[in-house]
Amino acid sequence: MMRQRILAVTLAGTLFGLCCVLLAHAEVRQSAGAVSDIDPHKAFGSKTAPVVMEVFSDFQCPACKTLYTGTNRQLMDNYVSTGKVYLIHRDFPLPMHAYSRVAARYARAAAQIGKVEPVEQALYQNQEKWEQSGDVDGTVASVLSVADMGKVRALVKGGTLEAGIDKDYALGQGYHVNQTPTSIIHSKGQTFPVVGVVSYDILHNFLDQLLSQK
Amino acid sequence: MLQSSPFNLRRTVILIGRLVLGGIFLYAGYAKILLPNMNPHPPIKIALSLFAMQVDSYQMLPPQAVNLVAHTLPFAEIALGLLLWIGWQLRIWGTLTSLIILGFFAAVVRSYALGLQINCGCFANPEPLTISTVFRDGLLAALALVMTVFAFIEARKPHAWSAPEKT
C-alpha cells in the first residue's frame, strides 16, 4: 500500500513536471517591447527611469478616478518625482462614455500649455458633476486663468488633438486593453499588464521588487 | 453498469472531479508562480507581487491579507492539485478544494455584480472577468461539491471488489 502511494506521488510529480516544461516552451503571447509614441506633455518623471508605467484611462470612468486619486498621486510623489518611474498618461476613452473623449481633448490641450496636472485633477475630482451636465469646458475653466483657457479652447477647436487620442487608443488595443484603468508596466525587458484599481501599498511592493531586480 | 463494478456513476464522477480539478489547480498555481506566457520569465517574487495586484483589484481584502493570499494561494493550489490527483484522504482535500472554489466563486460573483472592470487573475493571464467566468467558476464549484459529497458516500460503503463479510 505504501509502495503504491509512493509510486502515485512520483507519477503525479513527473506528470506535473512534464506539463511545466511543455507549457514553459509554449507559444510566447506576451513580449516586452520598447515604449513608443510618448507625448512628452503627458509623461512625467525621468525618461531614464528603470521602470516605465503607461496608464490607459478614461476621464469618465469611476475606477480611473479611484486610481488617480488613491494611488497615482502617491506614486507621483514617491516614485515619479524621485526618478524611479516614468509615468505616461494614455487616453483610452471608452465608447460607452458620452463625454470622455471631450474630456481627453481638454486634458490634452491643457498638457500642451503645461497645465495638465490641475486640469486632470479637476476633471477627476468633479467627474460626477460634468458627466451629468456635460460641462467639461466649465470644469476646466474653473482651474485655469482666462488666458490659459483661451489657449485650451483654441487647441480643442483646432481639431489637431484627435490624432493623439486615436494613437493612444490604438496603442492600448495593441496591448489588448479593453477596460480602464489598465496599467502597462515595463521593466528590464519585461511587460506586466495590470487591470483595475490597485492600492498604493500593493503597487509600491511590486515596484520595489522590480527596482531591486538585478 | 453493474453495481459491483469499480466504475459506477459515483466513482466515475469522483475520478473526473479529481482529474479535472487537480489539473486546473496544478496549472493555476504553476501559472501564477512561473508566468509561462511571459518572455523573459520574471523571478518568482515578482510573479507573486504581480498576482497580489490582481488579488487587490477585487477590492475585498486589506493589503496585508492581499499579500498573504498572493504568496500562499499558488503553492496551496499546486499541493491540492497533486493531492487530488493522488486521491489520498479525498474527503479532507475535497472539502478544502470545495471551500476554496466556493470562495473564488463568491469573489467572482461579487465583482461581476459590482461591475468591476478587472481581470479574473485565475490563470495569471489577461482574462477579463465576464459572465462566462462566473459560469465557469460555478460549474467548477458544483463539480467540487458533488465530488466531495460522493467521496463521503463512497467512504461509508465497502469497496465493490472487497470480499463479502463472513456471517
Describe what you observe in this structure.
- The complex is a heterodimer of chains A (214) and B (167).
- With 214 residues, chain A is α+β, with helices and mostly antiparallel strands.
- Chain A has a single domain (40-212), classed as Glutaredoxin.
- Chain A is built from nine helices and six strands.
- Chain A has helices at residues 2-24, 62-80, 100-112, 116-125, 127-133, 136-141, 146-158, 162-174, 200-212, and strands spanning 30-31, 43-44, 51-57, 85-91, 182-187, 190-195.
- The radius of gyration of chain A is 22 Å and the shape is globular.
- The model of chain A is unreliable at 21-33 (pLDDT under 50).
- Chain B has one domain.
- In chain B, α1 (9-34) packs across α3 (63-86), α1 packs across α5 (131-156) and α4 runs antiparallel to α5 (131-156).
- Chain B is elongated, with a radius of gyration of 18 Å.
- The model of chain B has no long low-confidence stretch (mean pLDDT 90).
- The chains are: A alpha+beta (214), B mainly alpha (167).
What attributes characterize this protein structure?
heterodimer, A: alpha+beta, 5-stranded mixed beta sheet, 6 strands, B: 167 residues, mainly alpha
Topology overview:
The complex is a heterodimer of chains A (214) and B (167).
Chain A: H1 2-24, E1 30-31, E2 43-44, E3 51-57, H2 62-80, E4 85-91, H3 100-112, H4 116-125, H5 127-133, H6 136-141, H7 146-158, H8 162-174, E5 182-187, E6 190-195, H9 200-212
Helix pairs in contact in A: 3-4, 3-7
Chain B: H1 9-34, E1 38-39, H2 44-56, H3 63-86, H4 90-114, H5 131-156
Helix pairs in contact in B: 1-3, 1-5, 2-3, 4-5
